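Issue: ligand-bound run for zinc ion - logging full I/O for the record.

Environment: standard queue, default settings, no custom constraints.

Inputs:
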Amino acid sequence: MTAGSQNALARLVDLHCHTIFSDGLFTPEEVVERAHRLGLAAVGITDHDSLGGIDRALIVGCKLGIEVVPGVEMSCNADGVDVHVLGYYLDYKNPDVLQFFEQVQFHREKRARLMCERLGKLGVKVTMAQVKAVAKDAAIGRPHVAQAMLEAGVVASTEQAFREFIGYDGPAYAPKMKLSPEEAIGFIKQHGGVSVIAHPGTYHQDKAVYAAIAAGVDGIEVWHSDHGTREVAHYNELAQKNQLLMTGGSDCHGGRKNGHIYLGEVSIPYKYLAAIKRRSRRT
Ligand SMILES: [Zn+2]
Ligand SMILES: [Zn+2]
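Outputs:
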């Protein structure tokens, strides 16, 4: 090993970032440029149920000389609990993959429409056109509905929209398409990707994590903005015990979540990305 490559292994990567293609505020170009300015060796583009930002990120990454890791964060449901599964290096140009995510987008739109209808019945006027104007190219989600409600002047804040209307127990809430973590893991594997259970510390119990391990998940997101030292130690141990890959990232949304830009704040040594790449048969 040369000194140069040893250096590369010591450099840091942030493997979990969102763009305007889901609920992030930055374009793919902005995410990559900011990651480059922070001196990161690589940045993962992991939008919710969308692969739309990958090519744009790869182009600017190539220009700036920063590695872009193509990824996606799939929304799943396990016994009523929302669970996210990250997929890295899946064959994102495969027609079956594209068709699958088109279907997911279709369901997301149907869900947003249903929430608008339910809000209407409650006397809260927000239209699907307003939601779409907020979402633009992104995979439509509740943050866009909340933002449209704010812009329509029917709530004073997006927090109020969630708290009173579209939160899990809210009267206008509509559930997501039912995709199990096992199905997402199988789908990612089938298309050459590496699957990782995202931010397990946020599920408040490990049932979904054990189910994901039984289903053959490749890795656990050990480091995450919502993980404290206890969670990091626990999932580090769980990953090692089960010989799983360990990943980490900031889950940066570019400020939408309480105004804080997390990009690069959770970053891990390149060696963890090297292990993901060895596992993926596409690199
Ligand atoms: Zn997530
Ligand atoms: Zn995320």
